[in-house]
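Problem statement: downstream parser choked on a complex file, so we are re-checking the raw output for the pyridoxal-5'-phosphate run. The parser issue turned out to be on our end (a line-ending mismatch), but while we're here, posting the original submission so the record is complete.
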Amino acid sequence: MKPTSTRVLTEPFRIKMVEPLKLTTEEYRQEKLQQAGYNPFLLSSQDVFIDLLTDSGTGAMSDRQWAAMMTADESYAGARSWQRLEEVVKKLTGMPYVLPTHQGRAAERILYSLLGGKNKVFISNTHFDTTRANIEFSGATAIDVPIDVNQTEGTDADFKGNINLPVLQQLIHTHKPENIAAIIMTVTNNSSGGQPVSMENVKAVRAICDQHHLLLVIDGCRIAENSYFVKHREAGFQDKTYEEIAKEMLRLADAFVMSAKKDGLVNIGGLLTLKDEELSRQCTNLLIISEGFTTYGGLSGRDLDAMAVGLQEVFDPDYLHYRIRSTAYLGERLHAKGVPVIWPIGGHAVYVDAKKLYAHIPVEEYPGQVLVCDLYTKGGIRSVEVGSVMFGKYDEIKKLVPAKNELVRLAIPRRVYTQSHIDYVLEVFDDILTMRQQTRGLKIIKEPPFLRHFTAQFEKINK
Ligand SMILES: *Cc1c(COP(=O)(O)O)cnc(C)c1O
């Protein structure tokens, strides 16, 4: 588990517009956090110094994207902005039918409400939470079959985002091919730590889909980041460009859904692309009812143009190297300090194992949420718990059935923070390590029935 490179990360851009950040004291943050019920989702962003809550829609656009927005065409139908985006997306996916949507989940709702319904089954390496929600809302079932991996150890050659092929075969047999609505490959695998998926794995899924006449959907929010891992980890791809690798993978799919708020390098936008004409006609009907006409899908011409440029910039080798290495930089240095992290480091985020870090705090006292709170009070850093606050359930006597892991996600916005910001985060972790024995658990004092991590409120346990 050695760092693959110790060189200074040089950001392949310079800054021509700045957004001032407010510097606050620990006392100030303590007060704000208490007012927010120890849930940083409820903080005002101006009280956050380094915001690692999500990498979704939080990136910085380039001068070329802003310039493209100035020349955008806001016509209701057939706008030039749309034509520019459609051309880029057709070249990338090789699919003839392109539908723009306002974000990823809108594309999911359209596709999965048509494919889903009662008695239908979707199988995926891991369904992202909005994917699962849209599938279950249609009445269908979503089954995750990630490969068996040791989450905290591994080598840099691993593709921990892969689907478990033998289990996939078994499930198709058990549920019968006619009931399988689609196989969804999430690339990179967001819910399993942003871990990559190998080309070999997607090719094998394609062969299984062919054998049983099943639809293969790629949820490719981070298709460019995944291509980086394929090029550097999988044999036979060293000489291909990142874009060629993405094209090769997308050509294995029948449909592609994307939240452009990730590798589209924009703050809002999504895509649904299809090979099948009849399915695209049905999707288009739903698009017009809910998102807007087929040539804007709920977006302005400016948004479409920014996305067209972003989808090209994201494959720039200098950008992708910076992107993946800067995430790894944080993860490798945390690991070297003795902070337990999911290994190897994924593309868009570093996941800290709070159960190990705060071994003295029982899962019923939410060690992940405790770390989220400590990172904020110590350093003004905002992160998110991915553990029993997010996924825990209660049994009949209202005892917590904890999640499998108690993780804290540090998601890295694209092109926003510099190495010195990340070095600052590392220094805050030094404080976390020093005071780790003194830190105490939390209890929930208020929670909504669904998605409680967004609005639950907590209290410190003093003992
Ligand atoms: C973000 C995301 C989505 C949903 O996209 P939104 O733009 O947030 O609606 C779907 N799948 C994956 C893998 C994602 O990361």
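For whoever reads this later: The first helix runs from residue 26 to 35.
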